[in-house]
Amino acid sequence: MSVYKRGAVYWYEFSFAGSRVRESSKSSSRTLAREAERARRRELEQSFNRIQRPRAAQMFSLATEEWLQAKAAHLSSRSVAIERANLKHLVPVFGRLLLCDISGDEIARYQEVRLREGAAPKTVNLEVGTVRAVLRKNRMWAAIQPDVRMLRVSDDVGRAISREEEARLLTACRDSRSRSLYPAVVLALHTCMRYSEIRLLRWNQIDLASRTVTVGKSKTESGAGRMIPLNDRAFAVLSFWAGLFAARQPEHCVFPLERYGATGNGFAAAMVQSSNPYKPIGRWKESWESVKIRAGVRCRFHDLRHTGCTRMLEAGVPFSVLATIMGWSASTTVRMAKRYGHIGQPAQRLAVATLSGGSFDVEYPQNHPQFAN
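-> structure tokens emitted (373 positions)
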């Protein structure tokens, strides 16, 4: 143990579980500093060994384990993965702090550091949201809530690609080494399904006879299990794709994990070296980025969903119908109506025009100011 003076205040320093603990006693008394050091060491030892203790004396790293274990049963696997990713950034910073020692200033410094590291504001907000959840479970959040400010995030819904950009993208997809990219992009454009919803599809979710696809796991509860009709383009591509898997079983993945040989490129010509029908493709990231470069189109995969949504609104599809296709909850539908409201204006004008009926004359009330003498 070491007690030393810095300015007018005594600090203490000691080793614990392989880490150095260096903190201010907030006191000018050496005796009080020694007592503060002993109390601090005892708190850490009790927390580390899971000895019954007040919630405020629990270490953040242990509190997160208990919180995630309790929440895992109620979260989707995707949400659990996101929380674990958040904790990889949070634990090195807050892990050895007691819950009572996490302040608004500590969180503000964390936000500043993460932004300097290049993290997006939305990502940092998600990480701070994890801290909030842990503290809230331990009844510690209310004390620091007024001192915590979330970062400003731009409300970007994405961009809708043009028909010409779509044609260039699809041409590049046909020549991609990843033969599954083309049907995946077509599905995104013509069903507005999310990336993960498409990637995890299995053949028992696709009914070519009734020309429908049923979404499995989804980002939202309202999105899971929704049934989407297949238009002519999506039906034709899926029918062709199904023909490449003559031995397919209902539980097989629509887009299985595949390895390709040294020759053969393109949607139909790719030489498949090996395939695991029970495991979905990991991702299309590399092939998607390559396709965008060749096509000269700058967009995200999620923008394909946004494109389909925009085109349906421009065609006059009501928001209530659109919400069932997109898998939006009631609250999300309201929020999206504000985002996309300007797109649906032609349909809105047509709707209110029907209230006028045919020809009509303007009738003013007799007490209207223009009739006043």
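Residues 237 and 243 are 10 Å apart (CA to CA).
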